[in-house]
Amino acid sequence: MSLETASAVPRGSEGGQKRDSYVPALDGLRGLAIIMVLFVHFIGDAQPYSAFERILVKASNYGVWGVDLFFVLSGYLITGILYDSKGSARYFRNFYMRRVLRIFPLYYGVLFLLFFVLPLFPSLVPPGLAESSRHQPWVWSYGVNLFIALRGDWALPYISHFWSLAVEEHFYLLWPLIVLAASRETLLRICVGCALFSLALRIVLLTLAGMNEISIQVLTPCRFDALCTGGFLAVASRSGARETLVRGARPAALILAAVILAISTVTATTRWLPEPSHALRSLLIALFFGALLLACVHAEPGSFIGRFFNHPAMRFFGKYSYGIYVYHGVISYFLVDKRVEDTLAKLVGSHLLAVLLQAAAGVAVSVLVSVLSYEWFEKRFLRLKRWFGEGAPGPGELGVKAAPLS
């Protein structure tokens, strides 16, 4: 997932950059995605008691679109990596091993702590986590999104946010086969077809099958719109259409933003729009983030977009976004479960101030734990990725080509 993927944009000669060229601004774009998600769980989950708090909570919940941005980024980066690796003798081995080394240690390490270490101290295990522990097979097998879809609710306390990691993992399993087998033109058609299929599936499940929004939101095929938007842009950027895409990125982003804002405003204030409009908005959001991604990749360093996404703070959040995502959901659920905001409100005399203090503390702890996790634990596995890239030694070979850690 772009939660885990390095901000390298591998391109062939048509892309105008050497292979594995590093685009720092994509770390900043990933930083925007994780900041949006942090707003959802640290402010959007708060209980509002005033008109201003209701507006704040409502606005913060739009941060859920940060997950869409992660999916677009993932589709773009993963498709680019795979497309440029076609013809490699170790195509599958290198891709899957690099994903395993980036994803599995943290994911399974956190599950081990929650389900094996913490229960050694029974008094510390909250009831919600005990409930999730009864459904561990779904979690260990990357089936969190399937379990949530079947229940129609965020039914895995403390770890429901792992649903998006499951979607990404399903994408990783399937997509390398498709990229390898398809020509450029066929792959572009597949990306468009999958995005439209996702739109149609959302509408059918919502209107005909009567499935609720949560179930639709977490199903992997329903997220093909964002993943395949990124994939389409990755392939199209390696064709003669690259310059046209780049020129149209900013105008398209502005137009899409206006349409999304209009739909969201009408949806939030009236019931004029039918339910399928939510499915259409999801596709438009994916297209908007796709346009923003292109504008970000090709932005001049001195432009507003270039300065914003290359800012050290944005890139910092992007660098540690995977860990922040994994840890913040556990921390935020604990704070909500224990009603910490109400306790703080009694101490400071203001519920709004309590919500903001709780959010600041939650973000700070999430970032601190993520940095320590990355530097002291995850890096040990990331160093092994040098054995699974271009120039990696095969059996009996001695040379090793250095690879970036992230």
Task: Write up this protein.
With 406 residues, the chain is an all-alpha fold. Helices cover 70% and strands 1% of the residues. It has 18 helices and two strands. It has helices at residues 24-44, 51-61, 65-85, 91-117, 127-133, 136-140, 144-151, 163-181, 184-207, 213-218, 224-236, 242-269, 276-297, 304-309, 312-319, 321-337, 340-348, 351-382; strands at 8-9, 21-22. Strands 1-2 form a two-stranded antiparallel ribbon. The longest helix is centred in the last third of the chain and has 32 residues, at 351-382. Mean pLDDT is 89; it is low at 10-20 and 393-406.
Q: How is the topology of this model organized?
A:
Blueprint (H helix, E strand, L loop, with lengths): L7 E2 L11 E2 L1 H21 L6 H11 L3 H21 L5 H27 L9 H7 L2 H5 L3 H8 L11 H19 L2 H24 L5 H6 L5 H13 L5 H28 L6 H22 L6 H6 L2 H8 L1 H17 L2 H9 L2 H32 L24
Helix pairs in contact: 1-2, 1-3, 1-15, 1-16, 1-18, 3-8, 3-11, 3-13, 4-18, 7-8, 9-11, 9-13, 11-13, 12-13, 16-18, 17-18
Mean pLDDT, rounded to whole units? 89
Percent in helix: 55-70%
Low-confidence runs of at least 5 consecutive residues: 10-20, 393-406
Q: How many separate helices?
A: 18
**Counted beta strands:** 2
Secondary-structure element pattern, one letter each: EEHHHHHHHHHHHHHHHHHH
Radius of gyration: 21 Å
The helix-and-strand class reads mainly alpha
Binned strand content: under 5%
**Which strand order does the major sheet show?**
1-2
Largest sheet: 2 strands, antiparallel
Q: How many angstroms does the end-to-end distance come to?
A: 12 Å
Shape: globular
